[in-house]
Specification:
Layout lengths: L2 E6 L4 H12 L3 E6 L2 H15 L3 E5 L5 H13 L3 E7 L14 H29 L2 E6 L12 H21 L4 E6 L8 H4 L5 H5 L6 H13 L4 E2 L3 H12 L2 H12 L8
Parallel strand pairs: 1-2, 1-4, 2-3, 4-5, 5-6, 6-7
Bound molecules: NADP nicotinamide-adenine-dinucleotide phosphate.
Family: Belongs to the short-chain dehydrogenases/reductases (SDR) family.
Pfam family, one: adh_short
Protein name: SDR family oxidoreductase
Length: 264
């Protein structure tokens, strides 16, 4: 039976780069996101360039009913997913209490609930099949509280903690779980989260998505628990463990403030 890697949020940014990096390794793909045209042209391009099977499913993962439909289709279908890449995610920025609640809820539905349900459903199928691999995309944000992006940082802390817990739980069943924690990456994430990326670009702090994807795939092959691309980024969790928590909150707020739209 052919096996597939399912990648959420494959229509742009890091998800798109991960799809290409996995196709290069000869992986068949199931690409999931909301933008049909982007998914269709990517699936077509990757199957032609790398001779793999690339399918796509249009799904708003922040809509629980649509997610249920996707999970049912996957459970009833013949295709075995041996790699799940939970990449789809959004950010919000500014004072939490002033944000539109709908968008904050969407963040929780996507970054936390959809990721957890996919780990639950596909993880279960992997256990039945005696093995598989899950890669969840968190962020360096997972290691600290993030004033002015509180909900986003908290969602990534959840992803890191869930992934580490599942890694231990599922190891005896042959299911390997890794979590990717990138620093800032040059993707539409900033624009989509209404954040300015120029201050990061000016200081050359934005990583290339293709490079991050390559390191993620390498980390997966080595079955790394926590994959942090870039040596400078790898120092951050160590420093955060030593620094007083109040100082961490203060510095993080100071770092995020210049990224907010000017009127904020
Ligand atoms: N860029 C960074 O600096 C950075 C750093 C650390 C971690 N990350 C994480 O990396 C992951 C990928 O982000 P990115 O930087 O590549 O940003 P991006 O370019 O904005 O990509 C986000 C992806 O998620 C999909 N998506 C958004 N809402 C969705 C929904 N409701 N249902 C299904 N798919 C949805 C988008 O596709 P559609 O619009 O087609 O649905 C898109 O493919 C996220 O989890 C993000 O938190 C990013």
């Amino acid at each position: 039976m052919p096996t597939y890697a399912l990648i959420t949020g494959a229509s742009s940014g890091l998800g798109l780069a991960l799809a290409e990096a996995l196709a290069r390794k000869g992986r068949n793909l199931i690409l999931v996101a909301r933008q049909r045209e982007a998914l269709e042209s990517l699936a077509c391009e990757l199957s032609q360039r790398f001779g793999i099977e690339a399918l796509f499913r249009v799904c708003d993962l922040a809509e629980p009913m649509r997610l249920t439909g996707l999970i049912q289709e996957l459970e009833q279908g013949e295709r075995h997913i041996d790699l799940l890449v939970n990449n789809a995610g959004i950010g919000t920025a500014g004072l939490f209490v002033e944000q539109d609640w709908g968008r904050e809820q969407e963040l929780i539905e996507l970054n936390i609930l959809a990721l957890s349900r996919l780990c639950h459903a596909i993880g279960n199928s992997m256990v039945q099949h005696g093995g598989g691999q899950i890669l969840n995309i968190a962020s360096l944000a997972a290691f600290q509280p993030g004033p002015l992006m509180s909900n986003y940082f908290a969602s990534k802390a959840y992803v890191l903690s869930l992934s580490e817990g599942l890694r231990h739980e599922l190891a005896p069943y042959g299911v390997k779980v890794s979590v990717l924690c990138p620093g800032p990456v040059a993707t539409p994430f900033f624009r989509n989260s209404l954040l300015r990326s120029e201050p990061l670009a000016r200081h050359k702090l934005l990583a290339d998505p293709e490079e991050v994807a390559l390191l993620a795939v390498r980390g997966l092959e080595k079955n790394r628990a926590i994959i942090i691309p870039g040596w400078r980024n790898r120092l951050i969790p160590l420093l955060l463990r030593l620094a007083p928590r109040a100082l961490v909150r203060h510095i993080t707020a100071k770092t995020i403030r210049p990224l907010l739209p000017r009127q904020a």
